[in-house]
Amino acid sequence: MAFGEFDLIDTYFTQRSKQRPDVVIGVGDDGAVVSLPERSELVIVTDTMVADVHFDSDTPARALGHKIVAVNLSDLAAMGAEPAWISLAVTLPEVDHEWLTDFAAGLREICDYYGCQLIGGDTTQGPLSLTVTAHGVVPAGSAIKRAGARPGDWIYLSGPLGDAGLALAARQQKVKLTNEHYKRVTDRLYFPSPRVALGQSLRGIASSAIDISDGLAADLGHIIKASGVGARVTLEAVPLSLPLTESVSQERALELALVSGDDYELCFTVPEARRGVFDTLIAHSPTKPICIGRITSETGKLKLELEGEPWELPEAGNGFQHFSQRK
């Protein structure tokens, strides 16, 4: 008997994760029905990962299941939202049961960890492509936006940058790493950890936020453009991991941190008036966000300084963009 679309859905995606009480109708109907808490608003994000664009053919299926959810939850985190539901659209060249088992396991693990539930989607045949739409909830009026940074606000990063870019460079044999360093940065590339709890704690404190998917220069650039401000970044304050600093030069490490992307840390701004509240909030956190600079009044200007001297971005300093001419 042929194994069709509905067999695939029933086998790998129906009732495979923990069930939320606010899901009235989930996978298996023409549409999902959920109930929203009172005085709340819905935050909706979507990301797509395409084979040979976002990942190569030997990327583990479990990692793909994890990452396609993680990149969406990272967007929700940047807006201070609590993850609630996801829908999945997957296009497959063929039914590969081993691949699907691992993919579904990765997807289920991260959904269960962050308390969100798969409630619907679509399956089709064609070149491998994965799309998730994630839905999160925030108290009404509390979503954090890119627009909101003001001159004098402090700029923070939730964690180190450049590891995913280093992992990709190592996979492309552009740099050689020790086995320990390779495992650590490859885990960062394959299994990013969205800063969900931090994002929710920043509601009412951060004036703006964004997740680092395309590199610090590009993503901080989105904040300063949306807010109509500028920024000054002290590069020696940018957090870098031991695998990165031990494997490449300082200049190359900074380039990876600024333009490589795929790190999914949060970049956010905190007004001076709320800095004391923020310091109290993170006082007992095992991983404290790092202040890397300040918002300025020079509209659209991103100034980078290293040991007090101006530092120029490399030519590929705009981060990853689809439909660009850069290869």
Which sheet architecture does the biggest sheet show? 7 strands, mixed
One letter per element, helices H and strands E, the order comes to HEEEHEHEEEHHHEHEHHEHEEE
Poorly predicted segments? none
Question: Which CATH architecture of the largest domain is right?
Answer: Alpha-Beta Complex
DSSP strand (E) fraction? 15-25%
CATH topology of the largest domain: Phosphoribosyl-aminoimidazole Synthetase, Chain A, domain 2
The helix fraction, in percent, is 25-40%
- C-alpha termini separation: 45 Å
Pathway: Cofactor biosynthesis; thiamine diphosphate biosynthesis; thiamine diphosphate from thiamine phosphate: step 1/1
Function: Catalyzes the ATP-dependent phosphorylation of thiamine-monophosphate (TMP) to form thiamine-pyrophosphate (TPP), the active form of vitamin B1.
Catalytic activity: thiamine phosphate + ATP = thiamine diphosphate + ADP
Enzyme class: transferase
Task: Write a compact overview of the structure shown.
The protein has 327 residues and is of the alpha+beta class. It has helices at residues 5-12, 61-78, 97-114, 163-171, 179-190, 196-201, 216-227, 242-247, 250-259, 275-282; strands at residues 23-25, 33-34, 40-50, 82-92, 117-125, 129-139, 154-157, 208-211, 230-234, 266-270, 290-296, 302-306, 309-310. Helix 2 (61-78) runs parallel beside helix 3 and helix 4 packs across helix 5.
Key traits:
327 residues, alpha+beta, 60s Ribosomal Protein L30, Chain: A, Phosphoribosyl-aminoimidazole Synthetase, Chain A, domain 2, seven-stranded mixed sheet, four-stranded mixed sheet, 13 strands, 24% strand, globular
